[in-house]
């Protein structure tokens, strides 16, 4: 999982400003990342699937570690 997290960190396409705004929304509205910025959670899912494809892992392999919101907090 550490390699996958590193892959997501190195290949993320969202900006620091976008992440900061999403964090602010989560704090203000007491919501999760998928509500605050669904684009970030979608990209996290996509990157984890790409990592899985590159490493012969089954589709959805990363979900045993949690959903995209959980992975966001691991980053």
* Low-pLDDT runs: none
Helix content: 55-70%
- Please compute the radius of gyration using only Cα atoms: 12 Å
DSSP helical segment count: 5
Q: What's the gist of this structure?
A:
By secondary structure, the chain is mostly helical.
Notes on the structure:
This protein has one domain (2-74). The chain has 75 residues and is an all-alpha fold. The chain contains 5 helices and no strands. It is 69% helix and 0% strand.
Question: Helices, strands, pairings?
Answer:
Elements: H1 2-11, H2 16-29, H3 33-36, H4 38-54, H5 68-74
Give structural attributes:
5 helices; 75 residues; mainly alpha; 69% helix
């Amino acid at each position: 999982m550490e390699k996958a997290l590193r892959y997501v960190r190195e290949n993320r396409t969202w900006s620091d400003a976008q992440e900061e705004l999403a964090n602010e929304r989560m704090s203000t509205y007491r919501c999760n990342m998928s509500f605050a910025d669904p684009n970030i959670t979608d990209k996290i899912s996509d990157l984890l699937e790409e990592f899985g494809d590159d490493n012969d892992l089954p589709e959805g392999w990363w979900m045993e570690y949690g959903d995209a919101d959980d992975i966001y907090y691991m980053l």
